[in-house]
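User: Can you predict the 3D structure for this chain?
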Amino acid sequence: MSEGKAKGKLALYWAASCGGCEIAVLGIDTKILDVAENFDIVFWPCATDGKVRDVEKMADGEIDVCLFNGGIRTSEQEYMARLMRQKSKVLVAFGSCAHEGCIPGLSNLDSKESCFKTVYHDSPSLDNPQGTVPRTVTEVPEGKLHLPLYYDTLKTLDQTVPVDYYLPGCPPEADRIWDAIVAILEQKLPEPGSIIGSDTTVCDDCPRTREEKKIKKFYRTWQIKPDPDKCLLEQGILCCGIATRAGCGALCPQVNSPCIGCYGPNNGVEDYGARLFSAVASVIDSQDPKEIDAIIKDGIPDPAGSFYRFSLAHSLLRRSKLKGKDGGAKVAADAS
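Assistant: Here is the predicted structure, written as structure tokens:
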């Protein structure tokens, strides 16, 4: 940063996610000092003492960049997404949860009642004899206590507010985070709406030898000891690198672990799960529908969790149907 130049203002926020993205920011190591040299961190609840009311008092667009990680599952998270959008010049969907919904988005296969039942009633480690579940309003002698409303459907960040850029990954790799920071500092960002990352797939970065893919059987990772040099998919292990955007350096396949798709689809793909379905279908070595069905059922027992592990909330499906009060099916039109 040139001497005398005013620092930018940076904010980070954590919504419905595991928090790994917060830790990943520190993965840039000593380069965090370069961030501190160029930005004042004005809001980062995970690491600094900041209040929402302080952000509310800021002028619109006063924050230069906000790295927002996590999907939108509660009314509080929706409020914060709208607030950070209002106060930020550049809003980045930081990580897979904000970008595609990620693991929290798989709860869209069920209803919030089912989620509460699992967590507050059926969990084997639970001690809840009264069957208490969270309520948005609870009256106590001192007054009313309020909790955020928990929505039936998890939304991605861009299903809630306009997003300027996407930085994929679960979490984004440190090198990609630094690339994004440098692009911001040097004002060399791509067109708004772009994904900051590679345009190729994980397979393009993977050093394993690839030949002809003819799959007669899929294996779970614990069922086979793979050849360390040969393409994992050709060995019958469901590796998602064939449909997944590069950017991670193909780290998982290099340690005999299949790509699970956390960097999302590469350019031009509207639905990641459908793209992966198509790619896998093309390598199954059979023309018999019954045999194909058996190959998939035996080797891929959880298709939703395998093909839409990170992308269900952002897919064309978005969620499963919800049951109406009359028992009929209905499709959620909004998050509540």
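The longest strand covers residues 8-14. Residues 111-151 form one domain.
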